[in-house]
Amino acid sequence: xxxxxxxxxxxxxxxxxxxxxxxxxxxxxxxxxxxxxxxxxxxxxxxxxxxxxxxxxxxxxxxxxxxxxxxxxxxxxxxxxxxxxxxxxxxxxxxxxxxxxxxxxxxxxxxxxxxxxxxxxxxxxxxxxxxxxxxxxxxxxxxxxxxxxxxxxxxxxxxxxxxxxxxxxxxxxxxxxxxxxxxxxxxxxxxxxxxxxxxxxxxxxxxxxxxxxxxxxxxxxxxxxxxxxxxxxxxxxxxxxxxxxxxxxxxxxxxxxxxxxxxxxxxxxxxxxxxxxxxxxxxxxxxxxxxxxxxxx
Length: 297
Ligand SMILES: [Zn+2]
Description:
By secondary structure, the protein is an alpha/beta fold.
């Protein structure tokens, strides 16, 4: 099993609010555990603009690649554009597409990155410059690799950008289960949205997820891109859904099991995760990926 990752995902300048060290920490944990075997970590190439243009406007792709964002655009993004930041986010868009291709070939694809679900077609938001989830599905759709595909987004924040970009795109459907009283204040309409109250906890969360995801998968997507944000964890600085580490692992196992039982390939992206100790976040992300490997073995 291989996982897509680049050391260039770590951006030092301009990314103060978003802890990019977690990517390197997660990659190191996966390697140390030997979870990937000899295939190991593989680095994505920079995608051509034509791929980014599947989900984004020419104006926004130009800004993402070459800069020139307004102060308001950078404020919404909560990042400062730099050449390094641009490269990191473009590589990350390609990493998710590669993980999807792996999933279509072998059932499971892994990305130690991705899940930039707050990026809209014409602007970025909430640390998300380019929407890797939407880009991947729109590229695969255009290539005829999938007719029906889904994003399953279990980050604590709603997948607003993904919902907006994929709305009305034939065969592409979105599922977002999130904490209702958090950013983004204004939610977009996913195909299926479940907004949960703060303090939901493991038992209630897992029961609702099983019912809702079972019903959603009856739409028979040929591929699921999973945004597995771990900011649902009880120790997260931004989220308040209060899942234990075991609850997060049970969530992931449930997603993988329900998909595998139906013969639906899954590509995993990391999504959000914010803690005082980034080691905690990296351990949760690594466990998501190893859980996927276990279920799809
Ligand atoms: Zn989040």
